[in-house]
Amino acid sequence: MRKISFSLWLFLFPLVVLCQTLNLKVMTFNIRYNNPNDGPFAWQVRMPMVINVIQQENPDILCCQEVLYDQVNDLQHVLPGYQWTGVGRDDGNRSGEFVPIFYNMDRFNMKAKGTFWLSETPNSPGTKSWDAACNRIVTWVKIKDMRFKKNIFIFNTHFDHQSKLARSESASLLLSAIRQIAGDDWVIVCGDFNDTEGSEMYNILTGGAMNLTLINTTRISRQEPSGPDYTFIGFPFKPEKGNTIDFIFTRNNKSATVLEHRVITYNVDGRYPSDHLPVIVNFELKLKKRRNVF
Prior knowledge:
The protein is 20% helix and 32% strand. The chain is an alpha+beta fold.
């Protein structure tokens, strides 16, 4: 009997593509800075609620805004399964607000990280431009998903609340930085952008070529997006219809589908964890494996 060559075996028994489905949950949450003048809405009063909603949702990646260093430590103390990265916006160290990125350290390995300032001198700590009321930053991290076997770039930011020019210029700078830092890799962008859909800032982020600009995840969710059409609620609770300023954007991953988008309305007797509502996006990831069937 003749021996069948290996190449003939491959012809007779072709490769089979197996798809494994994984999920990736991302949360963005402006937790409100620790302001001692907040009275009944002070951080020590709200902190148990902030922690509770994070633990209930159990995100793989958590991006927060308006976080002072003591609040970072409070979160890290009760979220031991997470690693975080970020710096204070005033000095590039511990001073001023952070926009930290927390990630599940059992699932991800950090490959690179950084911070830049939303100004004409982005590598100079504490700088601001374009009539901005405050100095603002972007924190980013490159992590490898050990389950998905791919790199993901996460960017987290908080745009200026007063200057429209600063928000527009920040959007352009953010896109440029994403192209330089992440190249063609998968990108997720979270933040409080202090402006709504239809604004100049929003149109800059989402209005260009698909491979260069960002996609609002609420627009591509497979399930109907849930929750109210606002994310800023104020203290006390006074939401305005359409006032969604907290977004999760994405770019460049054909293997990921937005399964669901939720604005979370968790509260305790009408008291909310923050003056912003957290936003959750659940991505469905399809990991293809090839093997011969003999």
